[in-house]
């Protein structure tokens, strides 16, 4: 793969999710009740439907919301929250740009023209489009790790960076694939953990990727692997890693992918 081919893969992925997959692919209709609804009855309805939040409408137009945990005696109007600007996102916002908003929020509301009729809550981040996005980022990052290893270590010099046992495992995979007429190099048969290990131990590569130490790189790569396993085994996001850790590592992957795509990376590692 030449340098021109190496560039733009993440940009292409980003463009796909910018233009093709937006917040509307995971949002839900915001259910609502009239402004003067009984708060106790509304709370009961929320509990029955496993909702935390419901919209409040005046003359059919949603003007705010209430939280089930706050409802008590009286009318819903007594507990209504007005929409704050930081709670609102456009219905065209790319999914990839939505995730980080949940670092300090439990919900966002979708603004369609001048109306607010949809909501995204933390649980919606479990949906397939989000999982596809994150897994795509991890897969692309693994590919870039291979590329910079090849650029950094000519003539398979990377082999000295992993244990004999790990190298033997790669050779077994390589030989199996060769029997199936798959055109691969030995480096393609490394596990993602091996690629991360090689990059994390190399001071020059760490500097290119803005890691301050091998321990920092190791911690980051371990979390990426854990996130990858969570997705591969269909576990819930936010379980093996907290939601805060998950969102932080997704943000870090964005930074790593952008670093890998800069043309100067090839110059720096030679």
Strand-residue fraction? 5-15%
Taking strands numbered 1, 2, ... along the chain, how are they ordered across the largest sheet?
A: 1-8-7-6
Straight-line distance between termini:
16 Å
Computed over alpha carbons, the radius of gyration is: 24 Å
Question: What percentage of residues falls in helices of 4 or more residues?
Answer: 40-55%
What is the structural class? alpha/beta
Shape: elongated
Mind summarizing the main beta sheet?
4 strands, mixed
Low-pLDDT parts are 1-7, 263-270
Q: What is the subunit arrangement here? A: single chain
Overview of the structural elements:
This protein is an alpha/beta fold and 270 residues long. The protein folds into 2 domains: 104 residues, CBS-domain (Roll), CATH 3.10.580; 142 residues, no CATH class. A hairpin with a 2-residue loop joins strand 7 and strand 8. Helix 5 packs across helix 7 and helix 9 packs across helix 10. The chain is elongated. The N terminus and C terminus are likely disordered.
Brief account:
This protein has 270 residues and is α/β, with parallel strands linked by helices. Helix content is 48%, strand content 13%. It folds into two domains: 21-124, CBS-domain; 128-269, no CATH class.
Per-chain topology:
Blueprint (H helix, E strand, L loop, with lengths): L2 H4 L2 H11 L8 E2 L2 E3 L4 H10 L4 E6 L2 E7 L13 E2 L5 E3 L4 H4 L8 E6 L2 E7 L6 H25 L11 H16 L12 H10 L1 H6 L5 H19 L10 H19 L2 H6 L1
Parallel strand pairs: 2-3, 6-7
Antiparallel strand pairs: 1-8, 3-4, 4-5, 7-8
Helix pairs in contact: 2-5, 5-7, 5-9, 5-10, 7-9, 9-10
